[in-house]
Design goal:
Helix content of chain A: under 10%
Largest sheet of chain A: 6 strands, mixed
Distance between the termini of chain A: 37 Å
Number of helices of chain B: 0
Shape of chain A: globular
Strand content of chain A: over 45%
Distance between the termini of chain B: 36 Å
Largest sheet of chain B: 7 strands, mixed
Order of helices and strands of chain B: EEEEEEEEEEE
Oligomer: heterodimer
Chain lengths: 109, 113
């Protein structure tokens, strides 16, 4: 089982829709999680941190479910500009993080 | 505010050639990293540094060397390039380690023929 696993998608959603991605992790001791956004042929950029019970930033909500060992990213009122690949990252050891392979989102007009 | 700057942005090498990728950051970050990104593989850590003069191996260090002579610079060297090293290389920096999030450079697209 991969340390951090994501559905590659693509998720094709209409503008204004709500979409959610999940990311599963295998190490039950993992404490810190992040979501990064990566536009096509660009570098990843930190979107949100997910430390305990999750957090919210505008239209974006990140949740952590320790019992089932997954984190989620919810995007409300999707915009065309949200089209990107979303990378899940989890700490998998001391000062060590592992990136998921990413979930591609395409928001359609 | 430049952040993390990588040079070059693109390069084509012949098998067996050598090259150095340069990463420079102006944020006074202690930690610096080199990752490679391949389709379907996610970002994989090559080498990293926790401060000036220090380096350590990551997940996929074979075929690469690094140096951190100055705090702001982290160099990645390929001594004898192989087609398997065709990839997109990203440098990243962090103030206190990966659990505080990374700032990435814009990447270097390397093709080895």
């Amino acid at each position: 089982r991969k340390e951090v696993e994501q559905d590659p998608g693509p998720f094709n959603v209409p503008e204004g829709a709500t979409v959610a991605f999940n990311c599963t992790y295998s190490n039950s001791a993992s404490q810190s999680f992040f979501w990064y956004r990566q536009d096509c042929r660009k570098e990843p950029k930190l979107l949100m941190s997910v430390y305990s019970s999750g957090n919210e930033d505008g239209r974006f909500t990140a949740q952590l479910n320790r019992a089932s060992q997954y984190i989620s990213l919810l995007i409300r009122d999707s915009k065309l500009s949200d089209s990107a690949t979303y990378l899940c990252v989890g700490n998998t050891g001391y000062q060590k993080v592992t990136f998921g392979t990413g979930t591609k989102l395409q928001v359609i007009p | 505010n430049a952040g993390v700057t990588q040079t070059p942005k693109f390069r084509v090498l012949k098998t067996g050639q050598s090259m150095t990728l340069l990463c420079a950051q102006d944020m006074n970050h202690e930690y610096m990293y080199w990752y490679r990104q391949d389709p379907g593989m996610g970002l994989r850590l090559i080498h990293y540094s926790v401060g000036e003069g220090t380096t350590a191996k990551g997940e996929v260090p074979d075929g690469y060397n690094v140096s951190r002579l100055k705090k702001q610079n982290f160099l990645l060297g390929l001594e004898s390039a192989a087609p398997s090293q065709t990839s997109v290389y990203f440098c990243a920096s962090s103030y206190s380690g990966p659990l505080y999030g990374y700032t990435f450079g814009s990447g270097t697209r390397l093709t080895v023929v």
